[in-house]
Design brief:
five-stranded antiparallel beta sheet; single chain; 2 domains; 174 residues; Alpha-Beta Plaits; alpha+beta
Length: 174
């Protein structure tokens, strides 16, 4: 018979899992309480919630949401970083903490919508450029052929102007 506290906790987890845009599962073994607090503080600055969850409750929450595939990921000691903003920002926050502090925290896997991510997928997400950089790259890619066309079309006019300027200089010298 489930207690009211556990029922509320499952509902809270289910709500958090449905609200988040990405979840990164980590193995937090080896972290001290101080390191865990520093990690939570660092991730909260990036808008990421970090929760140590009881596997059975997390599995129930995902099964109630119809996500059996994600429920099976919760084995062993697991803590979840839940991000509701830009997906790469959450992955960057976790991986930056690990590299900056030489932490023993290990990324197990994650989920993004209906997709299950491996630890390598999460690291690949962390290496993606920001949204602004990607937009600038797309605009630059669109703009470069147009700039090239303008330069090609302006070439003959530039040559005529150069020839006229040379003739003016030649006539002034006489």
């Amino acid at each position: 018979m489930p207690t009211e506290k556990k029922v509320n906790l499952v509902e809270s987890l289910q709500d958090a899992f449905t609200r988040c845009s990405i979840g990164i599962l980590t193995d937090y073994r080896g972290l001290t309480t101080t390191e865990l607090s520093a990690l939570r503080r660092k991730l909260s600055e990036a808008g990421v919630e970090y929760r140590v969850v009881k596997n059975s409750l997390a599995q129930i929450a995902f099964r109630q949401a119809g996500r059996e595939d994600i429920a099976d990921l919760f084995t062993g000691p697991v803590a979840v970083a839940l991000g509701s903003g830009e997906v790469p920002d959450t992955a960057k926050a976790v991986t930056e903490y690990i590299t900056a502090n030489k932490s023993t925290l290990a990324i197990k896997n994650g989920f993004f919508g209906d997709t299950i991510l491996s630890s390598k997928d999460v690291e690949s997400l962390a290496r993606l450029p920001t949204k602004e950089v990607l937009i600038a790259q797309v605009i630059g890619g669109i703009q470069s052929p147009i700039t090239g066309l303008v330069n090609v079309l302006a070439g003959p006019i530039r040559n005529v102007m150069g020839a006229l300027q040379a003739r003016i200089t030649q006539l002034e010298g006489q």
